[in-house]
Every structure is written in C-alpha cells, then in structure tokens.
Amino acid sequence: MTIIRKLFIANRAEIALRIVRTARRMGIATVVPWHQQDQFGPALAQADETVEVFGNPPVAAWLDINAMVNAALDAGCDAIHPGYGFLSENAAFAQAVADAGLIFVGPPASVIELMGDKITARKFAVAQGIPVTPSADEAEDPATFAERARNVGFPLLVKGAAGGGGKGMQIARREEELANAISIARAESQRYFGDGRLFAERFVEQPRHIEVQVFGDAHGQVIHLGERECSIQRRFQKLIEESPAPALPPGLRDRICDAAVKLASAANYVNAGTVECIVAPDGEFFFLEMNTRLQVEHPVTEMVTGLDLVELQLQVAQHGSLGLAQSDVKFSGHAIECRILAEDADAGFVPDTGKLLLLNTPSGPGVRFDGGVTQGAPITADFDSMLAKLVVHGADRKLAISRMRSALADTAMLGVTINNDFLSRVLRHPAFARGETDTGFLERHKAELAPDILSQAERQALLAVAASASPDIASTRIPEPYASMGAWRN
Questions:
Q1: Are 309 and 381 contained in the same domain?
Q2: What pLDDT digit, counting tens, does each position of 57-91 carry?
Q3: Radius of gyration of the chain (CA)
C-alpha cells in the first residue's frame, strides 16, 4: 500500500477544482499549475500550492511532459492526477511519471498504449469478439491511406488515433471532402494531443452514443457503474449527457455493459475508464473507443450511484483495491449534465471571448454546478470553450429535465455569450422529452431549436435586469455619499 500525501494535478479549470475538493476531503494536499494567461481559475484559490508553467501557445504548457513531471517533483508530490484532455491519455506521460517514482492516477502506460490509442483499441476489441465498424488505418500504409479509406465507403469519419473529447474528428460524406477532412483532423490531433496519426471508419447515420463507466483494480476485478447517453452533440463534442440512457431496452443495456467489462478485463484494466459505443437504429452496437481516463461527464454517474469517482481513482492508486463489488453498485433516479460553453449556439456554435462581468450560479435540491471560471476573469481563445458543467438529479427523467431547465434559467454569465438558452430549447423539445435522441438530433431539429427573435431594445432590457440583480453591480450603481442625497443632486 502506498499513501498519497501530496497530489500534483496536471490540469486546469473545472476538473482541477473537482480533484482538489475530493483530495482535500481525503486529507491529501494538492498542487495546481497555472499559466500567465490562465491565472484566474478557482482551483488556484483552493489548492494548497500553485506553480507557474510556461508555454506558447498556453495550451502547450499542459502538454510538456518533462515540465509537468519536474514541477511535481520540485513540489514534493507523491502522485500526479492527469484529469481529462491534455496528457491524460498519453502513455509516454504515464511512463515518465512512473519512471520518476511518482504514482500515476490512472491505468499503467502499457494499458494506455493498448486502449488509449484508438487504432490498437479497435484491433483489441475485434480480438475479443466485440463488433467494430469497418475502418482503414493510416499507419498500415500512409501512401494508400486515402485510397483504402475510400474503399471503406462513404460517409467516413476521420479520427485522430490519440484523440478524444471530439477533437481531431472530421466527417467526409463524399469523396471530394476526404482530403480536407484528413488535413483538418490531422492538424487538430497534432495541436491538442501532439499526435497526428489518423484512421477512418464507416460513419453510422443517426446512431446513439452510449458509453459505459468501468473501474478496474490491481487484483483483476473490473466492474461497471452503468451507462451514459451522450448523443446530443455538435461537431462530435457532447453537449448533454445523462444516466441512465433513456428508452434503451434492458437486454441491449446489459449486452453493452457486459461487453465493456469484458473488454476492460481482457486488457487488465486498472482505475477509471470509459468504453464508448455507437448504437445503430436497428439496435446493433459497435465499439467506438476506450477513454483511459476520467470523463468530463462523470458527475452524472456519481449522481445516480452516490459514488465519488475521483475518490475511487485515488483509492485504487493508493491501495490497489476498489473496495466494492458489482453487487455493491446501486442506481437511483436520473441525472443530466449540460456543458456551459462560451459560444454563440445560434450563430453556428462560434466560440466567444470577453470578460466575465457577472457570474450567477444555480442551486437547489439535486443541483450541482462544477465551474471552472470566476467573476472578473477574462475568457480567451487559448483553451477549450467549456466554462462549467451543470448537473442535476431527480427521482425520474421528467423531474431531472424540469430541474435542469430551472437551473439553466438561473445561470447567468454576463460579458460573454454562453449556450444556456440553446440548451434550454433542446430540453423543451418534445423528441428529447420522449428520449428520441441520436447524434444527428441538433441538425435534424435545427429549425425548431432556433431562438425567438428579440429586438435589440428587448435584449438590452433583459441584460440590464440581469445585471441589476448582482449585489456587486447594484451596490456600486450610485456611490456614496451621492446615494444618500436623493435625486435632487442632479
């Protein structure tokens, strides 16, 4: 048994704060890195220590393996938690952490190399008898990659081998779109993951995106914590996730969860991981990929199981044992997560920047706000546009939807455009209420999800009302002593 006394969190924003809070509750000190362009994150205020990191562009700071490992060593840390994104699925990083004598809070490098790489994971899934879509691997012969991809048949999904989170993915519906899809997918994969390798797979039309949360320990035990529905997406990035998946036949749910456990067990998987699948309209499912890390949407699983997934990660990293069996996992109610993004959903999901002048967060029964920004902070284009995650839980899906709609209405971020109005319209859509979701939902219902048109005067009036609700703004509206003098002063 190894005790973690001090934890280096090789990440930023919301997930860094999320890990800090659990580590603090467990009596583990934390160290969080920061960049000059990112010095307003709430995790920095709650961490025991902070350390400056350097990179140009700023995202490069979190992709520098040596810098991250050395910062952890210099701070006297025992372990590194990678969060999600950045180096979280980088086998070389996991190995460098281990070589430095530190604990990597995640699977060993060998497992990341096997399952974190999308290409090798697909081949491994086939060997376990788990179905995958037809594909072409660039590495087999780079010179003939485009030709072999064409032979798979259109539409095609071009993906980065080391990608995740919707990055490094482009769809080509026709042959003339393939070259551009390859170019964009490679550039994104190189930027976000430092790895430009690609593969292409047959794109299944109108699939549901279903994923299973798995956990393994050092004693060979692997369990699942249920499935999540992640079909509401734009540009292959998830916007709304929920658990359990609505309108999923019990038999299909069991087959998908059993396949996920089978795959993870065969890989000798340790710590948290997610097996992602797509489900075709006819009910056939295909293995998509395995994310060898904590997922952005892990809170919905926490809500329906009552488990703290970060605590489980740290427990496995320290003690090697999960401390619970499959029969110990109980599910209750329904949970939904919405990603609050700095973007204009009504203008093609264009990212927005600015200064966060006002931040109002929701609260109430079953409501959880995991934020990564603070009031007054600049919102730049240096990082991903996700500002926060709003999560709700209810006794059933109907109540969860109702609570989410109320929570979205109570969420305000002035100074930057966010997508909460758009998310509310999705939740109000009758097809969503019926659980009729797939990855083409937003495009298919585009016209119905368009906003009601407000005049400029109406928009300004609503913003003024929202701003006046802030005590910070209201209290400085008329400074003293003038506020006490009355209107005659003019």
A1: yes
A2: 999 999 999 999 999 999 999 999 999 999 999 99
A3: 23
Check pLDDT > 50 for residue 488: no
CB 169 within 8 A of CB 157: yes
User: Do 262 and 281 fall within a single domain?
Assistant: yes
Residue 96 is assigned to a structural domain of this protein: yes
Distance of CA 84 to the CA centre of its chain: 7
Beta pairing partners, 238: 233
Q: Is 62 exposed, middle or buried (0-12, 13-18, 19+ CB in 10 A)?
A: buried
Is there a contact between 290 and 316 (Cβ–Cβ < 8 Å)? no
Q: 310-342 in b/e burial notation, b at 16+ Cβ within 10 A?
A: bebbbbbbbeeebebeeeebeeebbbbbbbbbb
Number of domains in the chain: 4
181 & 61 share domain: no
What is the C-alpha to C-alpha distance for residues 364 and 387, in angstroms, rounded to an integer?
Answer: 20
**Token pair recorded at residue 487:** 């209107």
- Judge if 272 and 413 occupy the same domain: yes
Which whole-number Å values give the CA distances from 23 to 9, 17, 29, 81, 356, in the listed order?
10, 10, 7, 10, 28
pTM (2 decimals)?
0.87
Is residue 176 assigned to a domain? yes
170 and 306 together in one domain: no
CA nearest to 201, candidates 144, 141, 158, 143:
158
pLDDT value at 483 more than 70:
no
Are 242 and 389 found together in one domain?
yes
Are residue 67 and residue 35 in the same domain, yes or no? yes
Q: Is residue 174 part of a domain?
A: yes
Domain CATH number, residue 33: 3.40.50.20
Any domain includes 121: no
At residue 482, the pLDDT reads 40
DSSP at 132: B
Q: Which residues sit opposite 369 in a β-bridge?
A: 390
The three-state secondary structure class of 212 is strand
Shared-domain flag, residues 269 and 417: yes
| Torsion 356-361-367-371 (CA) sign | positive
CA 48 from centre of chain: 25
For residue 144, CA distances in Å to 136, 148, 199, 220 come to: 10, 6, 12, 40
Distance between CA 346 and CA 81 in Å, rounded? 36
pLDDT for the residue 193: 80
The whole domain housing 162 covers: 134-202
Quote the CA–CA distance of 401 and 419 in Å, as a whole number.
Answer: 17
